[in-house]
Write a structure and sequence with these properties.
GO terms for molecular function: protein phosphatase regulator activity. Keywords: Repeat. The protein is mainly alpha-helical. It has 4 helices and 2 strands; from the N terminus they run ββαααα. It has a domain at 26-82. The chain has helices at 28-31, 34-42, 47-64, 68-82; strands at residues 3-5, 16-18.
Length: 85
């Protein structure tokens, strides 16, 4: 008889099956840089995604504040979003 447990449960027993949880998988967005995420959603056809960019700009700026080029790149994207109609 096999025992099924979550990933947090670990056993070296050979009769234990470990099933990965949904939390173990990394989404494509998590693999993107802050600027990559900003670009992805700013260029979206979906208006909701573009609105979400505006709501997350402060967090993005905080993440890139140590790199002047990245900060300028964020400001350029803000300018493009301001012209969005």
């Amino acid at each position: 008889m096999s025992l099924i447990v979550g990933v947090d449960d670990y056993s070296s027993e050979s009769d234990v099956i470990i099933i990965p949880s949904a939390l173990d998988f990394v989404s494509q967005d998590e693999m993107l840089t802050p600027l990559g995420r900003l670009d992805k959603y700013a260029a979206s056809e979906n208006v909701f995604n573009r609105q979400m960019v505006a709501r997350s700009l402060l967090d993005t700026l905080r993440e890139v504040c140590d790199d002047e080029r990245d900060c300028i790149a964020v400001l350029e994207r803000i300018n493009r979003l301001a012209d969005d109609s």
